[in-house]
Amino acid sequence: MMKRSLLIAGGLAALTSGIPAATEAQARGRTVSVQGAHGGGYVKQRSASRSNGSLTSSRSLRTNDGYGYSASHYASRQAGNSSTNGTVTSNDGRGAATSSSRNWDDGSYAGGRSTTLNDGRTVGHSAAATKNADGSITYSASRTRLDGSTAAVSGTTIP
After folding, report:
1. Distance (Å, whole) CA 133 – CA 61
2. What pLDDT, in 10s, does the model give residues 17-47?
3. In the predicted model, what is the mean pLDDT of the chain?
4. What CA–CA distance (Å, rounded) separates 43 from 57?
5. Predicted model pTM
6. Which of 32, 97, 104, 103 is nearest to 71 (CA)?
7. How far apart are alpha carbons 115 and 85 in whole angstroms?
8. Closest among 141, 143, 137, 98 to 118, alpha carbons compared
């Protein structure tokens, strides 16, 4: 009986040793190359990896004619906050970088997003709200347009 138990335990150990733990997510990637007649074609790439509440990914495309883009993205989510960052760039120099964040706690929230184009123009928005002891809510929000103009609102609700 003891021999049988040891064999079963050894077999289970051998089977489970190759299984990664949930927090050890594997990185994934793929590259595809397609070549057609008369010189047409493209190369496409994607990759992604995860780790304890965060995700990183990238992708790109390049055609034989010289067109294409590359993009990357990072996201993190934890209790009480989340944030993202990303970029996109075409091979002719156009592109944008975006970032956002959100934080929340018992009775409060703050968050926003901002995008900056390669020509320097920026667009974005932000918001915040807090629940007060009397049950009212104090809030504020603002936005910035591509032309640089801004708009804002703030106030307190009646409980």
Report:
1. 53
2. 444 444 556 789 999 999 988 888 999 999 9
3. 86
4. 17
5. 0.73
6. 97
7. 10
8. 98
